[in-house]
Amino acid sequence: WLPKAHVEAPIAGSMVLAAVLLKLGGYGIIRMAPTNISTTLIYPMIAMATWGVIMTGLTCLRKTDLKALIAYSSVGHMGLVASATLIQTPWSTSGAVILMIAHGLTSSMLFCLANMLYERTNTRMLIAMRGMHKAMPLMTSYWLIASLTNLALPPTINLIGEIQIMATLFNWSPLTIMMTAMGATITAIYSLQMFMTTQQGHLTKDSKETYPAQTRELLIMLLHTLPILLLTLNLELIY
Predict the structure, then answer these.
(1) Taking every pair of C-alpha atoms in the chain, what is the biggest distance, in angstroms?
(2) Is 65 helix (H, G, I), strand (E, B) or coil?
(3) What's its membrane topology (predicted)?
(4) pLDDT single digits (tens) 70-106
(5) DSSP character at residue 179
(6) Which side of the chain, N or C, has fewer Cβ within a 10 Å radius?
(7) Using only C-alpha atoms, what is the Rg of the chain?
(8) Number of compact structural domains in the chain
(9) What's the domain range around 65?
(10) How far is CA 115 from CA 2, 109, 122, 156, in A?
(11) Do residues 217 and 142 lie in contact, with contact meaning Cβ atoms separated by under 8 Å?
C-alpha cells in the first residue's frame, strides 16, 4: 500500500509520509521488538526485509513514473531499517536510527524535486522530463545531491547508516551480505539512471518554455541540504 499512498498523495502528504510517518514504524519496532517478537519469527521477517530490498530495487529499474520510482526506493531503504531493528543490538539500532534520519531528509527532498518537475511538465513520466539541466541548471545541483545521498555516497550519513546495518546483518548471518550488497548495487544504478534521465538530453517541445526555479523552491531545497551536510560533518548531532 505504501507506494500507492506515496503516488496518489499530494506533495505535502508524500513529504510528511516519507520524512515522519515512516519513522514511527521504525520507532515502534525498536520499542516493541524485544518483548513482542519471538526468536523464531525474526528469521523469516529479516529474510523478507532483505529480499524486499532487492525486489523494490529491481522494480525501480523498470519504473517510468518518477514519483513511483522514488516511492519504491523509499520502501527498499526502510526494509534495511526493519531488518536492523529486529536484530536488537546497539550497533544495529544505531545504524537504523541514522538511516531513518538520512532517509527522511533524502526521500522528502526527492519527492519535492519530482513535484517541481511535475508542476512544469504536467507529467510524471521520466522520458518527458529529460533535459531539465538546460531549463533549470541550479536545480541540477540539488538533483545531484539528492541522487548521490540516495545511493549512499561516501561520506554521507546514508552510507554510515547502511554500513552499520550491513555489518550487523553480516555478523548475524554471513549469507545476508549477498542480498545487502546486491541491493546497494541496484540502488546506485537506478539513482544514477534517474538523475541522468531527468537532467541530460534534449528538452521536449512542451518543456522549452519551462520557468526557472522560484525562491521558495530553492529555500525548501536548502533546508533539506543543510541538515544532510551538517550531519555528515558531525554525526554526534543525532545523539
Answers:
(1) 59
(2) strand
(3) Multi-pass membrane protein
(4) 999 998 998 899 899 888 888 888 999 999 999 999 9
(5) H
(6) N
(7) 18
(8) 1
(9) 1-238
(10) 18, 10, 10, 24
(11) no
